[in-house]
Amino acid sequence: KQWYQRRVHGSGQSIFCTRTSSCFNSDQSCQIKMSMSNLRYLATTTILGLALSYALHQYHGEEGNISLDCGVYGQGKGLDLDGKPFQDMASFYPYYLCEHVHPTTKLIHFISTFNALSLMGRSIIGEWRWANLGLALVQGYGLAWYSHFV
Q1: DSSP strand E in 8-117: where?
Q2: Which of 56, 57, 94, 138 has most Cβ atoms within 10 angstroms of its Cβ?
Q3: In whole angstroms, what is the distance from residue 32 CA to residue 111 CA?
């Protein structure tokens, strides 16, 4: 077997995998090291996303916030003021803004989108891995969806 060394991003560590396996066969220690590398990467991008979110909030503050009466919409119902499905964007957009009015929802959406985009960028710029793309989609959409229930 041919072995190659792959540096784990930002950790100064290296992992060794067979060139043919790319860590997808039975080499469990290699798979565990790659999983830990992804977790460290997500932890790092989460901290960077939090810092960026804080900096943007400090810069922009509360200016530009729109005041809406969100009580007229049933949360999570997806219906307009008449209780019917939305017919156009003009009637949908105020409901959309009301679904994203809580600071926790906004923050989790920002972090999950930031992490998803960074994972996709990591796959495009670095070694292409379908697992990173899958993780980006599941993590990005899953956390954003979950944030509506927190």
Answers
A1: 14-18
A2: 94
A3: 25
CA within 13 Å, CB half, 30? 18
Largest distance between two CA atoms of the chain: 67
If phi > 0 it is left, if psi is from -120 to 50 it is alpha, else beta; for residue 12 that is: left
Q: Rounded to 5 degrees, what are φ and ψ at 118?
A: -70, -35
Q: Where are the beta strands (DSSP E) in the chain?
A: 3-7, 14-18
The pLDDT tens digits of the residues spanning 1-51 come to: 444 444 444 445 555 554 444 454 445 666 666 677 778 888 899 999 999
| Integer Rg of the chain from CA | 21
Structure token pair of residue 79: 């219906």
Count of Cβ atoms closer than 10 Å to residue 49 Cβ: 19
**At 71, phi and psi to the nearest 5?**
-70, -20
